[in-house]
Amino acid sequence: MINRVTHQTVQRSTLANLQLNLDRMSGLQGSLSSGKLITKPSDDPSGTAKAMQFRAEQRAAEQAARNAADGSSWLTTADTALQTSLAGLRRARDLTVQGASTGVLNATAREALALEIEGLRDALLSQANTSYIGRSVFAGTSDADTAFTGPTGTPPYTWTGTAGATVERRLAPDTTVRVDVDGRAAFGEGDDSVFAVLDRIATDLRAGADVNPRLNEIDTRMTAMLGEIAGVGSRQNQVLSAQDRIEKTLVDLKGSIAAVEDIDLAATLVDLQAQEVSYQAALGAASRVLQPSLLDFLR
């Protein structure tokens, strides 16, 4: 049986194909203008799911990068304070060595040494109370204004931090790093603090006493401070390594997202040109199909 093909059937079929070509060309033009293969989930459900997963990982990596940057700033602040404190403590030791020469220095010279040592004590106390964005780097999670009370405190040179409560930053789902420093370990506390040691040296100098035994006390505090500096350096290296790793992860994720969502520019241009040729051919075919009028049928 032969199906009857009417002129109206041909018109409808031609117009449908013409619309299909136009829709394809419109889609290619949209992709070319946006630069994206996926503009809505229905464009590629599977690709959309992958892109969402990649973006979730990207957000996590970006947060880790912010954590690492903040942790690096904490550690840099603490390291600078410790290095400055160590330099001051070395100067105090040199002055103590000078003051041990009891047979050479008169009362005026010993008073001058005592005053300079007290100045170094105040400078060390200031470094011990260093803060970063309003948080003391030597007091853990404590919200106290300073990590150590001053010489007029009751008792003097008390550490105001919270024992065992450390400040940490997460660098990965299973990796955290401590970014603060235990002020008691670095500077001591109370009578065992470096500040109290310098007070005793200044008192002995004014009294004309032998300060040579105080050198061991300074050396003990210097050893403790060097240990904390080494710990800070180790953690800084950990943070720097994490930053490099996170940066590489972010680059890889951006590439993965682009592979799923972004168009191939050259291929899209070729497809668009081919579609334009197809559309023009469809227009030409339609013009011939739709050309007959009622008079053409009456001839």
UniProtKB/TrEMBL annotation:
Domain of life: Bacteria
Annotated Flagellin N-terminal domain residues: 6-142
Role this protein plays: Flagellin is the subunit protein which polymerizes to form the filaments of bacterial flagella.
Keyword entries, A-Z: Bacterial flagellum, Cell projection, Cilium, Flagellum, Secreted
Protein name per its UniProtKB record: Flagellin
Predominant subcellular localization, coarse grouping: secreted
GO cellular component: bacterial-type flagellum; extracellular region
Signal peptide (UniProt feature, chain positions): none
Annotated family: Belongs to the bacterial flagellin family.
Subcellular location: Secreted; Bacterial flagellum
Keyword Secreted belongs to the record: yes
Ranges of residues in domain Flagellin C-terminal: 216-298
Pfam families: Flagellin_C, Flagellin_N
Molecular function (Gene Ontology), one example: structural molecule activity
